[in-house]
Amino acid sequence: MPGKNREPRLEESYRHCRDVVLRARSNLARAFWLLRHDQRRGMDALYAFARQADDLVDCPGSERDRRTSLEQFRHELDHSLAGKPVGMLFPALIDTIQHYQIQPRHCYDLLDGCAMDLSPRRYANWDELREYCLRVASSVGLACLQIWDCTDERALQPAIDCGLALQLTNILRDVRSDAQVGRIYLPQDELARFGVTENDLLSGEPTASMIELVRFQIVRSNALYASAWQGLSYVPEPARRLYWLMHQTYDRLLKKMEADPAAIFRTRVQLSQSTKIWLAARAVLRLV
């Protein structure tokens, strides 16, 4: 298992990754306890890597400084994969990659996706936005399959689509706050198709055209969630419970937006605490 060798530096690295997860505001990250101990440690390392990459992009400072920091992080990954793990994070990450035979390209794809957020940009169409989502989300999903001991190739496409669905759900519920910092993720051709401008997204006052645009994105997301659901039967226990919890949590977020599309322009849609507890209880009791 990852970190079975009790080498002090490696253990310290895994503790660092666990601390990153515990400090996170992500309820799903905290649900890693549904997994076996070794899988949980692997997920901690993967999450800590993704979290640090994301933080480097969103931290205060100029675009140049943030780009330099992300490039340095990439170089640290290079050196670590070459057999010289650096810092607090990489010993655990490399141990996880080696133990579960994770393809390093998934880590590089994630960094490439994060780099796309360094400066304000636009996505001409769904193909371009899909490529971004593949890099920042589906890459992580494919790495998770390895940690979860999922060897069934039929799980690959559902995992890819699950990443796309989760990322598109996040894009929808953050559409206004992202626009306020210059990030417009919704495809430009679809904005034009529905007659929605970037100023409309900033206004906080949804028009009929904006509502139709959101509904169009929800239809796309529902199709992705339907595909992702097929992966449930291919993911072995105990990871199946975590996969189910991730799917159901975000699918229910989407359902809330579907019931009230205008809400995303007023606030960040969230599930109630009671719903989160109910979903977690179902996962724990394996009622999935």
Report on this model:
This protein is mostly helical and 288 residues long. The protein folds into 2 domains: 119 residues, Farnesyl Diphosphate Synthase; 169 residues, Orthogonal Bundle (Farnesyl Diphosphate Synthase), CATH 1.10.600. Helix 6 packs antiparallel against helix 7. The mean pLDDT is 94. The two termini are 27 Å apart.
Question: What's the arrangement of secondary structure elements?
Answer:
Blueprint: H1 8-23, H2 27-30, H3 37-58, H4 63-81, H5 90-100, H6 105-115, H7 126-147, H8 156-173, H9 175-180, H10 188-193, H11 198-203, H12 208-229, H13 239-259, H14 273-284
Helix pairs in contact: 1-3, 1-5, 3-4, 3-5, 3-6, 3-7, 6-7, 7-8, 8-12, 8-13, 12-13, 13-14
Structural class, please? mainly alpha
CATH architectural name of the largest domain: Orthogonal Bundle
Named CATH topology of the largest domain: Farnesyl Diphosphate Synthase
Mind describing the biggest β-sheet?
A: none
| Tertiary shape | globular
- Structure annotation, total helices: 14
Low-confidence stretches: none
Provide the succession of SSEs: HHHHHHHHHHHHHH
Give the rounded overall mean pLDDT. 94
Separation, N- and C-terminal Cα atoms: 27 Å
Number of strands: 0
Please indicate the percent range of residues in DSSP E strands (runs of 2 or more).
under 5%
GO biological process, one term: terpenoid biosynthetic process
GO molecular function, one term: squalene synthase [NAD(P)H] activity
Organism: Anatilimnocola aggregata
Protein name: All-trans-phytoene synthase
